[in-house]
Amino acid sequence: MTERLSSTRAGIALGPLAQIPDGTARNYVLKIGEAYFHGFIVRQDNNAFGYVDACPHAGLPLAQELDHYLTSTGDLIMCSWHGALFKIQDGACIGGPCAGAKLTPWPVIVRAGELYTA
Ligand code: FES
Predict the structure, then answer these.
(1) CA atoms of 109 and 56, how far apart (whole Å)
(2) Where is the Rieske domain (predicted)?
(3) CATH topology of domain 4-117
(4) Would the CB of 58 count as within 6 Å of ligand 1?
(5) Closest of 105, 100, 98 to residue 81, by C-alpha
(6) Atom of ligand 1 at shortest range from CA of 96
(7) Average pLDDT, stretch 50-64?
(8) For the chain, what are the domain ranges?
C-alpha cells in the first residue's frame, strides 16, 4: 500500500496563487518519493490557508467532488461526509461530529504571487 504523508518539507513550488479563484479552494496531491501527500488550499484575497486533506472525524478526505471544500456561502470549510464545519483561518471545527477538533495545518506561503510549502 502507498504511504500517505501528513506533512511536506518547505520550499516546494505549488504554482501560481491565481490558479485558485478568490474565495474558493483547490486540492493538491504531491508525489514525494514513493509516497503521496494530499492537501488543499483555501484562497481569501491574497492569503492562502493550507490543510492536510483528512477530516479529524473519520480521517477521510473532505471533498467527494474535486475542489469542493467550502460551504455554499464560501465562509467555512465543510467535510462532505458528515457535515463537519471548520473555520478557514485556523481549521478549528465549530460544528458537526468532531466539534472542538482541528484540521491539521499544511503551512504554505505566497511569494510574488506564487505558492510554496512553508
Ligand atoms: S469524515 Fe468528516 S465529518 Fe465525518
Answers:
(1) 24
(2) 12-117
(3) Rieske Iron-sulfur Protein (2.102.10)
(4) yes
(5) 98
(6) 3
(7) 98
(8) 4-117
